[in-house]
Amino acid sequence: MTEIEVKPEHAADPYTRRVGVLVGIVGILLSVVTISSHRAHTQAVIDRTEANDAWSYYQAKKNREYTSEAVLSLLGALGSDPAKTEAPAQKFEAARGKYKADGDKIQAEANAKDDETKLEERRALRFDLGEGLLELGLVLCSLYFLSRNVFFPIFGVVASIAGTVTGLLGFLL
Question: Mapping DSSP to helix (H, G, I), strand (E, B) and coil, where does residue 23 land?
Answer without folding.
Answer: helix
